[in-house]
């Protein structure tokens, strides 16, 4: 074999070095990548010189008995399978133990200083649903408040205070009007009386020394902050009496609450969002159904008009993004006439009323810039990948044929969704029961903070008769949290970590099981010489059964690696959160580098795992051997991988964007009353973006479910194609299993190689 003269080449060449008589042009038909790489040289190399391909294993050889996925196989990675099953059994036992010890009511209801639930039916506190703090200034941070560990007495009340009033002021007014005590006593203990002196009141701790306007948040009373001329106030006051003879600043309450005031309106926001869902759930379901039908139509059309449909994807995505840019520009120009629109996000601060942000020019200008960047990126990718997309389109056509012959694969995403939902629900329920396990634990609280017994465990029933009460006058024995000293309670943090880790393992196992089952079904299709006559019945069911029966250990092995990486990422984020205040620039830089490295590692492992699962579905070998074979096969054909893999995913991603974007535009026009001709949308919505974002996000997930089957199909066909090229030579005795259109496009991509 003589080398091609270099003077005939106009582009940078790619050399194919092979041993004498063994260089097969079809192995490098992907070598020509249009304007990207140029043509291919085939240079003969002496037979006694080691080939570079040997570093990645020997190519497959012809086997007349190989007809696709191996039927006679044995169990693989048995040790990992046993560990996985033991972990699941332990997970079930953990859930049962947590169910016995936990009480979700502790998460649903706040608890007063005596350990009683606020708002629980059948109790004296049934109509008292809000927790009130006697002295909020003793609380140092919101986390202390939400964990019910604030060093002050807490009682259940039916409503929060609405005005400023001290206990001394109430006593003075009580002599003239008894109603003042009736208003004040609802924030006191049931044994309180209006005639105590301030000293006795502080000693008995029956009432707060002062109350101030508050609002309920998370069933707890927090200061009703407001801003007046840029100054933080409560009830238009910046200073108030604390009831102990001192004057306190509203800023001190703000520090004690640590920004909780910014979230006081979250409850009303949640109610408004719920109202919008209640009014639009019917239309949301219709939109998601349309998204499902549209995804089906695209998958069917891909089989017949993949090339044309790609241009529909491209033009549709560019058009939808362009419409978004135009709409943002219109909103931006319309808001120029409003004086309030010149404000910025820094001016209004953090607001729970999200609709306020849509009244700012800055918001729409930001949206417009983001959409413009996305538009430019999509156009540039289309320009640079234009010569590679042709091969991807042919692969998509082959994938459509495979799905057409195995239509049950389109139903499989529903099974995956059900299994994932079960895993998520079990994890959430177990986490809640673990978090609410234990018995009420009471701690000594010293209002003055000068007690040597502070934070010691106590018994509220006998506390007044103990030496602690005598040594620390005014000390209280208040409820702190739920816990215990048993072995189970000591290991609850460990159980939380175990719950999270097994959850990640199960989630990745379900995904791996789906990928292996789909790969087995599509490999069965590929290795059928006469399609569909040679395709056995129920290929997906057979592949699923093989994966469960023989390869649970291998799938658990692959998913374990991903779960460990994800666990490390979570630990990294946890440490970053805990050490955020002590970090310097160098540590933040290292954190970013670690995040980037773990992200790259996770995606690389996921890519290798998918191809390993394909090898497992075909040959039935263990995970390590399959991963090695898949890696070697891909490295022997690295140019082909570069051409097909990411380009195919890009085309499918355009399809997902088109489905979600099309439904999103229709939903936007509908929920904003701009399609009265077709149907009258729901009126008087609080936030139209609530159902809109729900429809867009749900449509993307539905499209992702359908197109992920397509992506797995294309990847399986591609792996089988590489195996086919190494096993066969296209002769009558060793014919290719690949379809002629797919083989033809590769030959057209490299006519110089075809001549060789």
From TrEMBL:
<protein>
    <recommendedName>
        <fullName>Choline transporter-like protein</fullName>
    </recommendedName>
</protein>
<feature type="transmembrane region" description="Helical">
    <location>
        <begin position="78"/>
        <end position="100"/>
    </location>
</feature>
<dbReference type="GO" id="GO:0015220">
    <property type="term" value="F:choline transmembrane transporter activity"/>
</dbReference>
<keyword id="KW-1003">Cell membrane</keyword>
<dbReference type="Pfam" id="PF04515">
    <property type="entry name" value="Choline_transpo"/>
</dbReference>
<feature type="transmembrane region" description="Helical">
    <location>
        <begin position="308"/>
        <end position="326"/>
    </location>
</feature>
<dbReference type="GO" id="GO:0015297">
    <property type="term" value="F:antiporter activity"/>
</dbReference>
<keyword id="KW-0050">Antiport</keyword>
<keyword id="KW-0813">Transport</keyword>
<feature type="transmembrane region" description="Helical">
    <location>
        <begin position="405"/>
        <end position="429"/>
    </location>
</feature>
<dbReference type="GO" id="GO:0006656">
    <property type="term" value="P:phosphatidylcholine biosynthetic process"/>
</dbReference>
<comment type="function">
    <text>Choline transporter.</text>
</comment>
<dbReference type="InterPro" id="IPR007603">
    <property type="entry name" value="Choline_transptr-like"/>
</dbReference>
<feature type="transmembrane region" description="Helical">
    <location>
        <begin position="502"/>
        <end position="527"/>
    </location>
</feature>
<dbReference type="GO" id="GO:0005886">
    <property type="term" value="C:plasma membrane"/>
</dbReference>
<keyword id="KW-0325">Glycoprotein</keyword>
<feature type="transmembrane region" description="Helical">
    <location>
        <begin position="364"/>
        <end position="385"/>
    </location>
</feature>
<keyword id="KW-0812">Transmembrane</keyword>
<keyword id="KW-0472">Membrane</keyword>
<feature type="transmembrane region" description="Helical">
    <location>
        <begin position="647"/>
        <end position="671"/>
    </location>
</feature>
<comment type="function">
    <text>Choline/H+ antiporter.</text>
</comment>
<feature type="transmembrane region" description="Helical">
    <location>
        <begin position="281"/>
        <end position="301"/>
    </location>
</feature>
<keyword id="KW-1133">Transmembrane helix</keyword>
<feature type="transmembrane region" description="Helical">
    <location>
        <begin position="692"/>
        <end position="712"/>
    </location>
</feature>
<comment type="similarity">
    <text>Belongs to the CTL (choline transporter-like) family.</text>
</comment>
